[in-house]
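[job 4417] fold queue: 2 targets
>>> target A
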Amino acid sequence: MFNLPEKHLTYNQDVFLRAKYNITVTKAWEGISFSSLNAWLNNFDNDDPLQLFFAHRVLDNLIYRSRDQFVTLLKTMLNISLPSLLAEKLSISITNANDLIYGRTNNHKLFFVPTTSSYDITASSPYLARELAIHLKVDEDSFVRFDDVSKYVNDKNVILVFIDDICSTGSQFCRSVSKKLFTHLSTKKCKVFYTPLALHEMGRDRLVDDCLTPKLIDGFTSVEWLDNTYNCFSEKSRFSKWSKNSHGKNLSKFYLDFLNQNIPDMYNNEDEKLGYGKLSLLYSFYYRAPNNSLPVIWTNDNNWSPLIKR
């Protein structure tokens, strides 16, 4: 069991007021309503100080990318990260890389590709494509459906850029891309790149081993890089540290015991309880939380009131 800090009641109140301010005043937490915040807090026992402190610790450490921040990430990817990657891998200037991105050259054709099937209406990458078209004026002819990628892989004048909001473990992207490109690997002539807005170090390692080394892709980059310190139960995470000590192991045990006692049917195994890949992230975009985040912020199983939509 973890030890509560001396002024935990004041801490809880401060965190709640900041959360309310983010929702009702600055709109930094757009997508979360004040009523959903209260409903989520009511999942926890108001008479249990450990539960209440844990809940407010989650709120205090939540990385929530608002719509404005999301658009900023998109702009940074399109105007900085991707041009730098293309310039390095294709041995061209940044100016020429920007010309490629915005279709101002006849030598090559660059296409953006959502990383999931266009028939998956719950996927986030098709949403990114719409936002790129709306906010960054990327021509609609510059997008290719994931299902149609095989038509382009043997064209040496084509550059395919797979887009995604977050790559956490890398398993979904590597699995999806290998299905589309592996059978064409011997004849592949196009260049393939991957540009998630956020990339976890576990996903980075998976990309190197399963996609970059076998040359399924030619490179990848990201705007935001995440490491194990973003795992909220890591001994080095901000979430687990207070009073000059780290409480990661005790917090993890408390959390798992809490799930078993209060919502025992939520998930059957530890991997799911800690978020996919056991990453235990407290990270979300305004339109959805990735399944690598702690399920307590997004699940609606067992009549649990979610803080964020999944």
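>>> target B
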Amino acid sequence: PGKSGRMFLLYPLLPWLSLVTLGMWLGRKLADREQGDRALRWAPILGLGFIAAALLLRALGGFGNLRPPRDGGWIEFLNFIKYPPALVFALFMVGTNLLLLSLLARLSRAGRPLSAVVEFLAVYGQAPLCFYVAHLFLYAATAKLFYPTPTTLVRMYPVWIAGLIPLYFLCRFYRGFKDRKPPESLWRLF
């Protein structure tokens, strides 16, 4: 991202398209019971492989890194570039998400107490674009109102958690709105 001639690019679409396509493909597999079970069996293996590949590429430097680590610290080692998404960022995040997906699916199927957490989190995942757009405005407004100067992580986390509450209800409302639309409606994409 950045300035290119007269244009200012903040959100590069092309690098994200592959991740969106992967998510849509996996979602279709998970929707089918037989293919979904097979995908969930492979999820932790692929997840660990993606994470290992990301860490190996980061350690080797060069390919896959948009910015090499500045020093030898582990925090800087894990400072992956998100905009535009570096290959190490994409591998690490997709790998982590596959591990979490596998864990949450197992807990949900086992009827463990965490299945309520899975159902709660699913609301956000069933209206992802609504969540994304709304969280930008909500947290920007919150920062302007309550934190006009930079703050600490300790002071930020309670605000972040509190912000998830109205976002939950908004996403739940939007999920219901989408579900009432016909399958070919563009509203179902958001």
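[job 4417] complete. Note on B: The beta strands are 2-4, 7-9.
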